[in-house]
Amino acid sequence: MSVLCYNKGCGQRFDPENNPEDACTYHPGVPVFHDALKGWSCCKRRTTDFSDFLSIAGCTKGPHNKEKPPEPVKPEVKSSGEKKDVDGLKPKCIESIVQAPKPAECFRRPSPDEPISRLQQKVSASLKQALEKLKLSENAPGEKEEEGDEIKIGTSCKNGGCTKTFSGPESDEEVCSFHAGVPIFHEGMKYWSCCKRKTSDFNTFLSQEGCSKGKHLWRKKDLGKKLVPCRFDWHQTGSQVTITVYAKNSIPELSYVDGNSTTLDIHIIFDGDKEFEQKIILWGVIDISKSTLNMMAAKIEIVLKKAEPVSWGRLDLPPVTSPPKETEKKKESDSDDDDD
Q1: pLDDT tens digits, residue range 136-175?
Q2: Antiparallel, parallel or unpaired: β 31-34 and 60-62
Q3: Whole-angstrom Cα distance, residue 178 to residue 163?
Q4: What is the mean pLDDT of residues 43-58?
Q5: 300-306 and 240-245 as β-strands: parallel, antiparallel, unpaired?
Q6: What confidence score (pLDDT) does residue 95 get?
Q7: Contact 159, 216 (CB under 8 A)
């Protein structure tokens, strides 16, 4: 009877009575997720794609392991009945809400139909070096495995959650059990968006059987540039607002930011085939001629010069919603007709 191997990065089934010392190829380390890169602490390979991370071949050989690792122990939260006494010990303070001035109260807001101009672009030396390394790695022999028609023996299935590898033409006849959704890591829990079987243990998450059936995917589909969300935030000083977009290895020739005094149109191509777009109606007013686009290896900073040294309440201006006066009048007229 075959059992599941719980070594990290393996996930194969094996016969306990036939388990030689080099039967399993696994990762003895732990998964590392840092700055959009995913990998294992025991080897140096890193990737930004989760499917590629799951298919990273193990770096250590040994026997299969049938013992399931214990679930991490959650700390017990003890509640006390002396809540009133605890509340009494808390320092008392007076809460006050400080509201920033609205743009209309400071000065007249320019029209959003002003002419659009492109922000001045500054490319850092770190980004130039990173792009040069990527070009060298793309041109190196042996890196373009997937360009040929032949699928190499040992190629991992690219479907999420599938641990099968290509062993010959007979592999195409197998049924692939995979997850059609995306992996989600939130508040210590790990699960797939398609079936939402939550667990706090990473090995248990990797060994979850797929909820969809289909054919194996030995090569990634080339869909050209794909529009993806990208994390960004902002901060301000007295004279400027800085928007930080966390896009790595952006391409200066294909990326730009257009705008005028009150609007921005952000368009960034990064990581080869990823595209990020964002339109923002700004809360305040900027001087577009003194604003710049600073491109670095790990992020992009859009530095906006404020037209007036006032504090912004938020980055974008929420749309103005007017009460539905016309519908109310129609309802009143309809009710009057009914009374008649």
Answers
A1: 776 655 444 444 567 888 888 888 888 888 888 888 888 9
A2: unpaired
A3: 9
A4: 83
A5: antiparallel
A6: 58
A7: yes
Q: Which residue has the higher pLDDT, 223 or 104?
A: 223
Q: Looking at the chain, how many residues does it have?
A: 340
Q: How far is CA 179 from CA 156, 161, 183, 226, 314, in A?
A: 15, 6, 9, 20, 39
pTM: 0.45
H or E element, residue 173: none
pLDDT of 120 higher than 90 = yes
* Angstrom distance (rounded) from CA 136 to CA 114: 43
Reduce the DSSP state of residue 194 to 3 states and report it.
coil
C-alpha distances in Å from residue 226, one per residue of 55, 222, 223, 250 = 22, 10, 7, 14
Q: 295 to each of 52, 272, 273, 278, 283, how far by Cα in Å?
A: 27, 15, 17, 17, 24
Q: What gap in Å lies between CA 92 and CA 77, rounded to an integer? A: 25
Q: How far apart are CA 206 and CA 27, in angstroms?
A: 13
